[in-house]
From TrEMBL:
Highest taxon in the source lineage: Bacteria
Keyword Transmembrane helix found: yes
Transmembrane segments: 36-54, 91-117, 124-141, 153-174
Keywords on record: Membrane, Transmembrane, Transmembrane helix
Name of the featured protein: Thiosulfate dehydrogenase [quinone] large subunit
Organism the protein comes from: Cellulosimicrobium composti
């Protein structure tokens, strides 16, 4: 067809020599109500992880009774991992109660929760949360209510989407975080 210019969709956008391509933060370009919804969603998912950390640490009586709290010598991974009956139950049962796995799990819950609530380190939080949620998904296979998908997968994809949209800068400290010299020199910390 005459007069059309084809551009490779994977090719970088042209820039003026000596300038960097502009990074588009979709959350900042959204309407204010959309920004608020993205920010609140990010904070709520962060609180989901932080609450799991707090309940397992202190045995607040919701998912973890006080006598099984981490501070009282309980193992945060034993209850879930030792009661599995799925495809990979044997693999995960061997990890139950391992002190290293307990610490890794709890640091993950705390780090992901704080990062999402504060809107900082969203890339690290997205990768960490996705890894944790995928392991939990695998631990529960085969699924009971839906043979393919569950809330672990949808939550992981939601966190990835919030990260890609730049939701850390809405109702959070994402903009301030990104201006830190350490973060500017290490893009993976964004």
């Amino acid at each position: 067809m005459k007069g059309t210019i084809e551009r490779n969709a994977n090719a970088p956008l042209p820039t003026v020599e000596g300038t960097e391509p502009e990074t588009v933060n979709l959350a900042e370009r959204a309407t204010r109500p959309t920004q608020v919804v993205l920010g609140v969603l990010r904070i709520l998912i962060g609180f989901y992880f932080l609450w799991a950390f707090l309940d397992k640490t202190f045995g607040l009586g919701f998912a973890t009774p006080a006598e099984r709290a981490w501070v009282n010598g309980g193992s945060p991974t034993t209850g879930f991992l030792s009661n599995l009956e799925g495809t990979f139950s044997g693999v995960f049962a061997n990890l139950a109660g391992n002190a290293f796995v307990d610490v890794l799990f709890m640091v993950g819950l705390l780090g992901i929760g704080l990062a999402l609530i504060l809107g900082i380190g969203m890339r690290v939080a997205a990768v960490s949360a996705t890894a944790l949620l995928l392991l939990m998904y695998l631990a529960e296979l085969p699924l009971v209510t839906n043979p393919i998908i569950d809330d672990h997968i949808t939550m992981a994809l939601t966190i990835i989407a919030l990260t890609l949209l730049g939701a850390g800068s809405v109702l959070g400290l994402g903009k301030t975080w990104q201006r830190l010299p350490l973060v500017q020199h290490n893009a993976w910390l964004v």
